[in-house]
Automatic annotation (TrEMBL):
Family: Belongs to the HARBI1 family.
PANTHER family: PROTEIN ALP1-LIKE-RELATED, PTHR22930
Protein name according to UniProt: ALP1 protein
Start and end residues of each DDE Tnp4 domain: 5-86
Subcellular location: Nucleus
GO MF, any single term: metal ion binding
A cellular component term, taken from the record's GO annotations: nucleus
Zinc recorded as keyword: no
Claim: Hydrolase is one of the keywords in the record: yes
Needed co-factor(s): a divalent metal cation
Amino acid sequence: MGKAQKYVLLGDATYPLQDWILKPYQEDENLTQRQLQFNYRLRRAHSVIENAFLRLKARWQILLKCDDCSLELLPTLVLACCILHNVCEAHDNPFNEEWLEGAEPTELPKPCQPAPAAMEDNQAEQVRELMCQYFESCGEG
């Protein structure tokens, strides 16, 4: 993109736009085709992430009940599960679809209103615009 970028997290419309949190453009009739494409790709990426975490929690259901381990152990436990999960996925270890029944996502409360504009970072719009240009240059997909 001609400018070095750091890692970003994907958020939805309720998050403030920051240079480290990408969120979609606000959906309205004024969006350009490029902005609609950006929103579409952001949603697609977000669904891939959700599916990956769902498979991780399904395979390692201890992650669903970490309330019975010490806080000091928790980061090591999560890291170990992530590493083992990636090893299983990389080696095509069979994934039992029945595991998903125990790992269905629970609805956690989410903010209903978008973050106030005052929380948004003015520099972040430049990051989002660069990503939008990049997605446009990548073509369909």
